[in-house]
């Protein structure tokens, strides 16, 4: 029996890739292990979005330097960082034996088997950003797990000035809708109740296909797969945000009223320098439309502080945007220069201290806003999809509301069942509630 250990970094797309690699390797006779000492192969599914993400993996790789007489596992570097650094990797870490970019993961299972037989380096990176050798497996679902990701489109064509994704994930390419639906059916048969559809810009799903299969149609069809109780998606680019999308969210009971709409900055000047293709006014119009048609929707965003040239005034505009639009959550990041991107050569790069100070200010403000929003939930009764025991235990279970609020409630419950929970208290990052037992239901408060 051959064994592997897998470490997944980065975004949900990597989580999906990691889960598909697990399926593919199990099918090829491999067993997953947690300890590196017992693993014949160690796989890193990596991220390049910020320098820190890469540094973490580089220091992990350093630990596998051969020596000390112990049996060295086959080290495989997969995903975005492999694609970005390419042949630099074997120069820095000559013990890495397999390199595969995110569009070449289909080659990994067979190549990994061969790596056990010799000492050759195997490289699956392609200069062609349209090349695709994908894994044809549904993600492996751990028993009892009721949520799964499904990538619906690869790559990105936006080339925002700061971003490495188009360079490592290649050009935008929608997957075949029938293949997506087959995968969703298969996941639903294995007990998955919540599907999150993934893409760098899900709204563009189908634009590269001739059959007119659009994202709103895909959302509806996924939501109608028997067994699926909830569908979410990420990410929706503000440029392609559409009224039709809002309509599907408003009308379809299983399409969750939750939206991640990354704004990135509150300053029009910075948005233009980033090449985002919208300004604050049009972003506000999209949020207005969402709140008018889906008043109870959860709304999250992504924000970068310290983009080159960001003045204190630009930064204040980001803070006031957060105050004004009141997001449930903000995925904030300090700008990190990515080699080869347009922003690298822009003037006005800010020092680390300024970027960190701004990040701290955003996080403090947003913690307060998140808590205030969560407090408005106290007293409401909401449907919660039970996921399992809460990570910190103490007899509590965890689940989510349709808006994607995490709720802790006294267990046990049945994973995959939607129960009614009355919210009794609010924290910054989650809510606490009590399960409504039969006979004590309260009128639906929405
Ligand atoms: N496709 C999505 C974002 C994908 S990357 C969109 O268009 O919004 C996820 C997040 O990482 C981005 O939203 C951005 O906030 C952050 N990010 C990307 N590049 C970054 C960089 N160079 N420095 C800091 N944060 C970055
Ligand atoms: Fe990066 Fe922009 Fe593409 Fe998002 S839309 S992945 S931020 S280039
Ligand atoms: Fe990172 Fe690649 Fe995702 S760079 S954020 S793992 S697309």
TrEMBL record:
<keyword id="KW-0408">Iron</keyword>
<dbReference type="InterPro" id="IPR038135">
    <property type="entry name" value="Methylthiotransferase_N_sf"/>
</dbReference>
<dbReference type="InterPro" id="IPR020612">
    <property type="entry name" value="Methylthiotransferase_CS"/>
</dbReference>
<feature type="domain" description="MTTase N-terminal">
    <location>
        <begin position="2"/>
        <end position="117"/>
    </location>
</feature>
<dbReference type="InterPro" id="IPR006638">
    <property type="entry name" value="Elp3/MiaA/NifB-like_rSAM"/>
</dbReference>
<dbReference type="Pfam" id="PF01938">
    <property type="entry name" value="TRAM"/>
</dbReference>
<dbReference type="InterPro" id="IPR002792">
    <property type="entry name" value="TRAM_dom"/>
</dbReference>
<keyword id="KW-0808">Transferase</keyword>
<dbReference type="InterPro" id="IPR007197">
    <property type="entry name" value="rSAM"/>
</dbReference>
<dbReference type="InterPro" id="IPR023404">
    <property type="entry name" value="rSAM_horseshoe"/>
</dbReference>
<keyword id="KW-0004">4Fe-4S</keyword>
<dbReference type="GO" id="GO:0035597">
    <property type="term" value="F:tRNA-2-methylthio-N(6)-dimethylallyladenosine(37) synthase activity"/>
</dbReference>
<keyword id="KW-0479">Metal-binding</keyword>
<protein>
    <recommendedName>
        <fullName>tRNA-2-methylthio-N(6)-dimethylallyladenosine synthase</fullName>
        <ecNumber>2.8.4.3</ecNumber>
    </recommendedName>
</protein>
<dbReference type="GO" id="GO:0046872">
    <property type="term" value="F:metal ion binding"/>
</dbReference>
<dbReference type="Pfam" id="PF00919">
    <property type="entry name" value="UPF0004"/>
</dbReference>
<feature type="domain" description="TRAM">
    <location>
        <begin position="375"/>
        <end position="437"/>
    </location>
</feature>
<dbReference type="InterPro" id="IPR058240">
    <property type="entry name" value="rSAM_sf"/>
</dbReference>
<dbReference type="InterPro" id="IPR005839">
    <property type="entry name" value="Methylthiotransferase"/>
</dbReference>
<dbReference type="Pfam" id="PF04055">
    <property type="entry name" value="Radical_SAM"/>
</dbReference>
<dbReference type="GO" id="GO:0005829">
    <property type="term" value="C:cytosol"/>
</dbReference>
<keyword id="KW-0949">S-adenosyl-L-methionine</keyword>
<dbReference type="GO" id="GO:0051539">
    <property type="term" value="F:4 iron, 4 sulfur cluster binding"/>
</dbReference>
<feature type="domain" description="Radical SAM core">
    <location>
        <begin position="142"/>
        <end position="372"/>
    </location>
</feature>
<comment type="function">
    <text>Catalyzes the methylthiolation of N6-(dimethylallyl)adenosine (i(6)A), leading to the formation of 2-methylthio-N6-(dimethylallyl)adenosine (ms(2)i(6)A) at position 37 in tRNAs that read codons beginning with uridine.</text>
</comment>
<dbReference type="InterPro" id="IPR013848">
    <property type="entry name" value="Methylthiotransferase_N"/>
</dbReference>
<keyword id="KW-0411">Iron-sulfur</keyword>
<dbReference type="InterPro" id="IPR006463">
    <property type="entry name" value="MiaB_methiolase"/>
</dbReference>
């Amino acid at each position: 029996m051959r064994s592997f250990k897998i470490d997944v970094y980065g975004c949900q797309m990597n989580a999906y890739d990691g889960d598909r690699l697990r399926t593919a390797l199990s099918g090829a006779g491999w067993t997953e292990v947690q300890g590196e000492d017992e693993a014949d192969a160690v796989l890193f599914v990596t991220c390049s979005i910020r320098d820190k993400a890469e540094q973490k993996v580089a220091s992990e790789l350093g630990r596998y330097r051969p020596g000390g007489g112990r049996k060295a596992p086959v080290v495989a570097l997969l995903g975005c960082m492999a694609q970005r650094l390419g042949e630099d990797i074997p120069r820095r870490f000559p013990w890495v034996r397999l390199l595969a970019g995110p569009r070449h993961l289909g080659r990994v299972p067979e190549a990994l088997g061969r790596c056990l037989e010799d000492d050759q380096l195997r490289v699956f990176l392609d200069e062609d950003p349209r090349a695709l050798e994908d894994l044809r497996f549904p993600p492996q679902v751990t028993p009892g797990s009721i949520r799964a990701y499904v990538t619906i489109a690869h790559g990105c064509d936006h080339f925002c000035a700061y971003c490495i994704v188009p360079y490592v994930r290649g050009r935008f390419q929608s997957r075949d809708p029938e293949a997506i639906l087959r995968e969703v059916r298969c996941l639903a048969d294995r007990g998955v109740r919540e599907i999150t559809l993934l893409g760098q810009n899900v709204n563009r799903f189908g634009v590269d296909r001739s059959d007119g299969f659009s994202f709103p149609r895909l959302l509806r069809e996924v939501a109608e797969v028997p067994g699926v109780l909830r569908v979410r998606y990420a990410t929706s680019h503000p440029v392609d945000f559409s009224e039709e999308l809002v309509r599907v969210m408003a009308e379809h009971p299983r399409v969750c009223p939750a939206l991640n709409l990354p704004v990135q900055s509150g300053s029009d000047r910075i948005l233009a320098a980033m090449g985002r293709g919208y300004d604050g006014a049009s972003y506000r119009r999209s949020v207005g439309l969402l709140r008018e048609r889906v008043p109870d929707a959860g709304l999250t965003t992504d924000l970068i502080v310290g983009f080159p040239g960001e003045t204190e005034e630009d930064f204040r505009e980001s803070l006031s945007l957060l105050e004004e639009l009141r997001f449930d959550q903000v995925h904030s990041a300090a700008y990190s220069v990515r080699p080869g991107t347009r922003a690298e050569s822009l003037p006005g790069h800010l020092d680390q201290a300024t970027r960190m100070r701004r990040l701290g200010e955003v996080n403090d403000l947003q913690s307060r806003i998140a808590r205030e929003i969560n407090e408005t939930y106290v007293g409401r009764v909401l449907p919660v999809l039970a996921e399992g025991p809460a990570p910190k235990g103490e007899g509590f279970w965890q689940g989510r509301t349709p808006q994607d609020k995490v709720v802790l409630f006294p267990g046990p419950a049945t994973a995959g069942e939607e129960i009614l929970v009355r919210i009794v208290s609010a924290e910054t990052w989650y809510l606490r509630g009590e399960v409504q037992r039969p006979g004590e239901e309260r009128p639906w408060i929405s």
